[in-house]
Specification:
With 333 residues, the protein is α+β, with helices and mostly antiparallel strands. The protein is 20% helix and 29% strand. The chain has seven helices and 15 strands.
Length: 333
Amino acid sequence: MINNKSINLITNKTDSGKRIDQFISQNTELSRQRISKLIQDGYVSVNEEVITIKKNKIRGDIEKIKIILPKLIEDILKPENISLNILYEDDYILVIDKQSDLVVHPGAGNKTGTLVNAILHHCGKSLSGIGGHIRPGIVHRLDKNTSGLMIIAKNDLAHNNLSKQFMDHGRNGDLERIYDALVWGIPKIGSGKIETQIRRNDRDKTKMMTTNSMKNGKLAITTYKVIEKIYNHKNDPLISQIRCKLYTGRTHQIRVHLDYIGHPVICDQKYGKGFNTKLKSLSNDCQNQLKIDRHALHSSKLSFRHPIGNKPMTFESELPDDLKLLKNMLSGI
């Protein structure tokens, strides 16, 4: 039974051994993200006993699970009239081509001016309460200075379905995430697979790093293909345009992996910073025209199945003007 305040569920023999969060996900339209938050905040009880650990398992034949839905918090996030390049929209999803220099959601140091604030303004009251707030469902993220394709869920039903697709990473479905990057140098092997463990950098918590430890790291898999090679006037390898496909979704994954193989993303201030001195070889006039202050990474293709109709959908986006200009400028060295 579902009402505006709570959801009441009853388990049976076949549910014994299931995790509580998995059972709730299978029997409601709540997103996994919201379920985790509700459990963590003490809004879920089993046989009238509050639980706060989502990995707890169903033990008996019949157990009563109650999920309290707290009042939605409307005043934390404010709508803001920020321009968005919307490629597709219906009652369930938005597909946008995100501009660089746009943070996806509010956080420390970014309370306003984010993609979430922009979507709140665009969608108004059509959004449901994902995560306990009236806010759009951010299914996946792009770094502030990564441009390109993103999908946003407009309600819990769409969010739950899309989250499952992204968690599967296309292993058993149609999800595909392709990125184009401009990198320093030209890989000797034109295409390949990069498979490492990735974890938080010990010295700088804002960075990630590869590691040999399977205990401390998380598996990260990226494939790449060189699609354009650019040489300088001496015919030495200068830069290349690389197309990457994600098979996992680790923080900064493509940037870390391209740096790992010795070809960091151009203008990346966190990874391969030493290579950015090459930009100084441009004339002063070119440097003034360029003025790029973001890394050269763009989400160029996104494929998935519509969360309601199950229809395959594919969107593509070419390199934005600032990255085209960067490539043209460097081609003239």
